[in-house]
Specification:
alpha+beta; globular; four-stranded antiparallel beta sheet
């Protein structure tokens, strides 16, 4: 703690090991509770504490809110040291994204199992598609700048393998040059019975200088719009209204748009507008009919009084009529 308090920045390198053919005993880092206490103590002595994590998979980090920054490299191989140095000292901006969800607690993940046979009862409800709480969501990753996404458009596909093309523009609104990774998640029509969002594509931009932009194109094939139906023994193309979600992670959706495949229900707003328009049209027709009846009734009544005035002893006075007409 004394050394940490005197340093400008405290860097702690931690990790966990793994083996083949068996699950880990827990999601804690090597050192367990003692390591957690160490990190917490150092972070209290130095507010600029950075933790570098090397792990083969998901780990829990109960101290994550008390440190200034966390970087995870997973298993980087023999160049791990050089990679850490380049990113820590700012020679290279971090560009990676989490390929898994890092859970808030051990209860927010499928628990370790020492059995040789493990049933996958969760089905498709894993990672970002589950109800687990994430410390860091699937696809998450920060860099030394910020990006903005323009509203996406559904553009015409340029090749036969493409069914739907989503186009957006990414702009670096920060002060450092860096790359971004745009992630495309798809929400299927409710009748398909799929998870609320499924990753269907991603695109890494080139290095964008501050203020620079790049057009990002993400193509969806017919297979991307399909889901596996075990009853049919194959993939089935879904029809209906899809939602395309563009984000910096599964929990950081920046832009959304809907598009239709096959027959889609009319939006509620359109249905309401049609209903209101129909009611107005019906009201106009009713008013026209009632108005016509009233006019005819008045006309007939006025006509009856005129006829009565022009009668004498029950007979028409043709001479008076002719005289009036002249």
């Amino acid at each position: 703690e004394t050394a940490a308090s005197k340093a400008d920045v405290a860097i702690i390198v931690v990790g966990t090991t793994s083996g083949e053919s068996e699950d880990g005993a827990s999601l804690s880092l090597d050192g367990g509770a003692d390591l957690d206490v160490l990190i917490d103590s150092v972070s209290k002595a130095n507010k600029n504490t950075i933790v570098l994590v090397q792990a083969p998979g998901a780990v829990t980090m109960p101290w994550r809110t008390s440190v200034r920054g966390i970087m995870i490299l997973f298993l980087g191989g023999q160049e791990t040291g050089n990679a850490w140095a380049d990113v820590v000292f700012g020679f290279v901006p971090p560009e990676g994204r989490l390929p898994i969800m890092l859970p808030e607690t051990e209860w927010d993940a499928i628990p370790p199992n020492s059995e040789m046979s493990v049933p996958y009862i969760e089905g498709l409800q894993t990672s970002y598609r589950s109800d687990f709480q994430a410390a860091y969501p699937f696809g998450h990753g920060l860099t030394y700048t910020k990006f903005e996404y323009a509203a996406p458009v559904n553009d015409t596909c340029a090749d036969l393998t493409c069914h739907t093309r989503i186009v957006t523009t990414v702009t670096n609104v920060g002060t450092r040059s860096a790359t971004d990774i745009v992630q495309l998640y798809l929400g299927f029509p409710r009748a398909a019975g799929q998870p609320k969002m499924i990753l269907k594509g991603f695109k890494k931009t080139g290095a964008l200088a501050p203020g620079a932009s790049e057009v990002v194109i993400l193509n969806l094939t017919e297979r991307d719009l399909s889901y596996y139906d075990p009853d049919r023994g194959g993939f089935v193309k879904a029809t209906g209204s899809f939602t395309a979600m563009l984000g910096a992670s599964s929990a950081d959706i920046r832009q959304t748009m809907t598009f239709c495949v096959g027959i889609c229900d009319k939006p509620a707003e359109a249905s309401s507008a049609i209903l209101v328009g129909s009611l107005i049209a019906a009201a106009v027709i009713v008013v026209g009919i009632v108005g016509g009846l009233v006019w005819r009734l008045i006309h007939r009544r006025n006509g009856g009084e005129s006829d009565g005035d022009s009668r004498s002893d029950g007979k028409y006075e043709q001479g008076s009529s002719e005289s009036d007409a002249s």
